[in-house]
Amino acid sequence: MTQAKQIGKRFAFIFWGLFLFIGYQFFDSHLAKQRNPNQNPNSFVSGSQSVLVLQRNRMGHYVTSGQINGYPVTFLLDTGATDVAIPQQVADVIGLPYGTPMRVGTANGNATAYRTEIQNLTIGELDFGQVRASILPGMKDNQILLGMSALKQVEFSQRGEQLTIKQYN
Q1: pLDDT 10s digits, 74-107
Q2: Closest Cα partner for 146 from 57, 82, 60, 95?
Q3: 90: domain CATH number?
Q4: DSSP label at residue 142
Q5: Lower CB density within 10 Å: C or N end of the chain?
Q6: H helices within 59-98, ranges in order?
Q7: How far, in Å, CA of 18 to CA of 4, rounded?
Q8: What domain count does the chain have?
Q9: What 8-state DSSP symbol labels residue 2?
Q10: Domain coverage including residue 70
Q11: 167 exposed, middle or buried (CB, 10 Å; 0-12, 13-18, 19+)?
Q12: Same domain membership, residue 85 and residue 128
């Protein structure tokens, strides 16, 4: 094989490698926006209330970015969850204390969870303050289930593909 053909093959290999890398970056970002269309939550303050408007994701769920104790996290709104449910790996990074162990019923069956307290939970302009939560060692995903221990503080209504959440200050 001539030297020119070897150089040509190397450039073709480099070209296709870069093409695949750039394609992956583009589509990964696109898929992330489909999983969480509320990465920058649309919220505002109107008089004595804070308002958050969420778009439904392609699976029909409401997923949004927010913070726990200043740490960025992703929430999945779950009105069927009693507490805010936090995967163990996320709780460890945030530094949440493990409280009393307890048995809980989850979609995957019964599990052991640990009671904890979130000092500050925020989503956009909504500030939930101190919230009761549970640390679940068996949760595989890094999404946090935003349960009723937080959602009981707000009023929400759904119309079409949007969920509007209002918090009265």
Answers
A1: 999 999 999 999 999 999 999 999 999 999 887 7
A2: 82
A3: 2.40.70.10
A4: S
A5: N
A6: 88-94
A7: 21
A8: 2
A9: -
A10: 38-168
A11: buried
A12: yes
